[in-house]
## 1
Amino acid sequence: MNKYEKRGELMEKIRAGIYGYGNIARSVENAISKSADISLEAVFTRRDPNKVITASGVKATAADRAPEFKDKIDIMFMCGGSAADLPKQGPETVRYFNIVDSFDTHAKIPEYLDMIDERAKKSKKVAVISAGWDPGLFSMMKSLFSSLLPDGRGQAFWGPGVSQGHSDAIRQVEGVAGAVQYTVPDEKVLSEMRNGSEKDYTTRQKHRRICYVVAKDGADKGKITKVIKEMPYYFSDYDTEVNFVSPEELKREHSRMPHGGNVIRNGRTSGGGAYHVEFSMKFDSNPDFTASIMTAFARAALKLYEEKEYGARTVLDIPLSYLSQKDRKGQIAEHL
């Protein structure tokens, strides 16, 4: 294995693989390059590997050859889309590797978790699923805030920004050549929450979705619009706007991927006082931030694997101390 120096000692690096080579994968590749304790060993693609040039210089390999690397990779970063890729790729890949992914179809997480858990336990591997910012980091905040203020109401707000999962879902629609989707929070509802509201808001009240779509030549734009707006789990519960643009406009106006959001909870303590807690974040690149989160949880997956705690986990199941490059004493000294 490759070695790196930690406090004057040579330590073994985590040997990583990347499955899929799109936006998330390229961001994971960059995150690994900035992590002293992880080395990238292989990149797997469903495209012709001879036509894939990686930023790191690691040679791309055909995805169906991944099992040949089962003794050369400690953790596989699963970088496919949640709509069509991960439900197929996750259960198959965890037969050979510990995995981490950012599966983000909220309503399907329990089903996906059970499926991965069964396969992971059978193969004696560890999988950390849905390790993005929401689900993921936001999930941790929602759990924490509701535990601190059980007598209250909480809401999560996304955006304004580009949703990778929803953009990918649109690109799966027949007749679509490219797409970007923006999630936009309702400022009135957000303001009400910041002013102490304990109302229950519907999904439609909290957000709207704006889609920019490139249609293939001859595609039925009316049909595409209908399929998008009626898509369950992604758009059917929202007011959704679909705009058709040229490939040039999509690239020129919608190539950046900023995002952010807020987790808010309003409640009352046992003494009757009203309290407001809020977690907020804003970032320039959705895939870059998601990759940073996946990288931290890859460390946790390997620690669980070393403890023989096989099976699938979510971010709610993992101690914070497992995410860091620092040891427990170092974390306590710096953060407590």
## 2
Amino acid sequence: MATPRPALVRLHRWLGVPLCLLFLVWFPTGIVMMYCGFPEVTDADRVAHLPALDASAIHVLPLDAAAAAGIAAPRDLRLATFDGRPIYRVRSATADAVVYADTGERRTGVARAAIARAAVAWTGRRIDSARVERLDDVDQWTVALPFDALRPLWKFSWPDGEEIYVSQASGEVVQETTTRSRRGAWLGPIPHWLYFTPLRRHNARWRAVVMSTSGAATLAAILGLTIGIPIFSPRRRYRIASAPARLPYRGRKRQHVIAGIAFGVVAATWAFSGLLSMDPWTGRGPERPRALDDLARALRGDLPLDRFAARPPAAALRALAGFRVHELELAAIGGDAAYVATLDGGETRVVALDGTPSREVDRDRLTRAATSAAAANGGATISLLTAYDRYYQDRRGHLPLPILLVDIHDAERSRGYVDPATARVAGTYSSRQWSERWLYHGLHSLELPWIYRRRPLWDIVVIVCMAGGTALAATATSLAWAVVRRRRRRAAPARGPGTR
């Protein structure tokens, strides 16, 4: 048996006094976050709420739309519907414009009436029952940095708790919350991420607080293990009330040491992986290998806008008669111009300029493009995956399958996961992401292949770990409160019989 150094014990104790409440928040909220996330409007949500495109209303060619937008070489060009009219959304690396596909006019602003109609179309509710307010500043649900470019926002609140935020800049719904989603966020992500508006609105300050607290929590947990494990005696060498015991403590301190021995490693690795989530060294994540950029460019190259005149968007939509097309994307797939249509339920169809619609891009074409891109980077092995692997996984099943795995033979062991339905790279991995994959996702979310894909086993293991961490934090909080009370009593002035 080893005797812990008094200095380590004191440091652990005084780190624990302020940090125990954070641990007591982090672990239970981690359980909530397994099932409740922060409210958001995803790209899939946006497309699902778009009305179907009307081929008869589209009279402007893509090349003319890009010219009206003032963007000669757009990297992204899509047809959708806004306020009852077809529009082209034209984007480059530095510019974003909207051109009406029925007249060729560039949209210069979004009217208040159109913003109200966007909220009504999204919710299917009457506008006269909503409370409307303009937000020029952040609130709890729009405090993240991406919302800054979308302000001002118009917030529509209905009596049953549904809230919609529409961007004045784009006229699109950019955030949606309900009473249930807000409650879940307050019980999960907000306290877990310290995502409180007064702090989160200052990004640098928020990052500093999260990194310092998670770093201090890691140190406190490691100190606890350093103290607790050596004093544990499997042979019961201690005596408590004349009875043999494995630990020289009783009561709350004994409970805390037992919880620490059982779940201290969980606490230490969880706090450390939480620190890694902030990428404390660079703040921007690992740089993507060139081989993956080459792969993305080979699959989706520069748009040959003049070639789409051979089969204009209206003709592509007529080829999809019988389907409700919510969005039509123009693409250059493996060097060939094509359309990618998004249908009801998020399904897609590929419409080549000289063929019939298909569910996916020809896999041989994708293989040739990927092989050509990888030639300068050591070549590649290409295979079809019908199930998630250790670097491409999603417990909710949102990532597409089947998927083409392009295993590139470069120094970074890059892997690209190509969706045959859209010819887009749906996921990537390289050795530069090792710490993010295993030390962050692996330790923080237990995204370990032998557990993560086996539910409810993963749920049970994570909940047990979180419950054990909660017990560790609860006993620490009780001990910390006892320490604080003792200090207060010692510091209080002596009271005589006549004092009040």
